[in-house]
Amino acid sequence: MAVMGVQMVVTLLVATVMQRISPHVSFGRWLLCNGSLFRYKHPTEDELRALAGKQKPKAKRERRVNGVTDEKPLTVPRDIDLHLDTQPITTIDALVLRYFLEYQWFIDFSLYSTIIYLFTEGYYCLVDAQDEFNIGVLWCLMTVLFSIKVLFTVMQHYFRSVEGGERSVCLTFAFLFLLIAMIVMIVREEYLEFGLEPGLTNFCQNLEHFLKQQGWQSSVPFIKLAFKIALVALCSFIGGCLTFPGLRLAQTHLDALKMAADRPMLQLLLHASFLPPVIVVVLWIRPITRDFLLHAPMGKETVQLMSNSAYNTFRLWIIVVLCVLRLSLTRYHLQAYLGLAEQWVERMKREAGRISMLEIQRKISRIFCYLTVVALQYLAPIMLTIHCVLLLKSLGDYSWGLYPEPPGFTPAVDLFPTQQPPTSSSDEDDDSEDVQAAVEQIMGAMSAVRSLFTPLFYRGFFSFMTWWVSVCQLVTSLFGLYFHQYLGAL
C-alpha cells in the first residue's frame, strides 16, 4: 500500500487549505452574508415613543425597597403602527450569532469532505489503485459523525431551555421513534429491502469465525440481539436529534410558500424540496418500487423496466438530486425564518393592551440571534443523508453508472489494507525475528478484523441509516405541518 499516495497528498493539501483559507474565505459565512438575506432591525426607544405619541415620558417609580428605587419598564400600546426596517446581513452581524463558529466550521468541513470524495471517485475511475486506502470514505464517515454531533449540540440547547416544553417534546419523539424502530426490526425483507438481516448474518458468521480463531466462544443469536438493541437505541437518539429540525422545516416551508405567493414556479420547487423524505422512504419499500420497476405489469405480460444494478444506481442518484434541490433552496427557508419578526409584529398589532419596549426589542432581536441554529437544523440532516448515500455507494460496492467498473471492484471496502511483512535476511538477530513475528501477528489480526465487514453488511447498515433519517424527517415535518396549520392557530 502506498502510504503517501496521491490521495494522502490531496487530503493533506485540502486540510491545509481548510485551516488557512477558512478564516478568510468560508462557504458557510458566504451563505449567510452574501447580501441575499436581510434581517429585521428592532426599533429604538425613541422610535417607539414617537409612534406612541409621547415626548420622552418618565418611567413610573415603584416604592423604595431597602433604599433602592425600582423603575417599571416603559410600555407602549400594542396596536401602534410599527414597521420594521430591513438590513442585509453582514459578517459583523453574523459574528454575534449563537453557534456561528460551529456552523461555519461544519459547513466548510462538509464541503471539503464532498470535494475529496469526488476526487477519490475520479481517481479510482482513472487509476487502478485497489491497494490504496480510500481517504474519501474516512472524510464521509467523519462528516456523518459531525452531523450527528451538531444535531445533538442543538438538541442540548433545547434541553437547557426553561421557557417551554422543548425537553418533553424531544423525549416524547425519541420514545415514539424507539417504538417505530422496534417495529421496523421485525418487518421482513420482502417489504423493506435494506438487506440488514443478510448483512447482520454475514457479520455474525465472520465474527464467530474470528473469535474461534482467537480461542473464544460466541453466540450468534446473542450478537444479533445485541446489535439490534444498539441499533434501535441509535435510531431513538437520531430521532430525538431530528425532532426540532423537522418541526422547524415545516414552519419555514409554510412561511416560504407565503413569501412566494406570486411566484408559482418557486412554489413548485418548494413543494418538491419538501418531498425528498417521502420519496426516500418509498424507495426502500420493495412492493412499491423495486418489484414494480423490475416487473411492471403490461396487460397480461410483465415487462422489466430496469435491472437490479440499474435500480440501485437510480436510487443513489435520485437521493443525491433531491438533496441538491433542497440545498439550492436554503436561502428561501432562512429568509422565511427571518420573516417571523414581521409576523410577530403583525400579531402584536391585533392584540389589546400594552407591552414593554424591552420586550419588543428582545423578541425581534432573538429571531435573528438564532439564525445559525435554524441553518444547522436545515443543513445538517441534508449533509447526514447525502454522506450516508456516498458511503452506501462506496462501501456497498454500488456504481454511479457513469463509468464501467469491473466486478468486485470495491476500493473503499478495504478499510484495513494488508501489507506484506518485510523479508528478513539470514544474518538478522533474534530481536529482529521477534519484531517480524509481532508484525505478522498484527497484520493477521487486522486482516481478520477487515474480513468482518463486507459489502453485504455495509449495504444493509447504510441503507437502513439513509432510510431512517428520512423517516425521522418525514414524521416530524408532517407533525409540524399539522401543528403550525391547525394547533398553532388556536
Automatic annotation (TrEMBL):
It is a multi-pass membrane protein. Keywords: Glycoprotein, Membrane, Signal, Transmembrane, Transmembrane helix. GO terms for cellular component: membrane. InterPro entries: Transmembrane_161A/B. It holds the Pfam family Tmemb_161AB. Residues 1-23 form the signal peptide. The chain crosses the membrane at residues 105-124, 136-156, 168-187, 225-247, 268-289, 309-329, 367-392, 461-483. The keyword Disulfide bond does not apply. Belongs to the TMEM161 family. This is Transmembrane protein 161A. It comes from Pelobates cultripes.
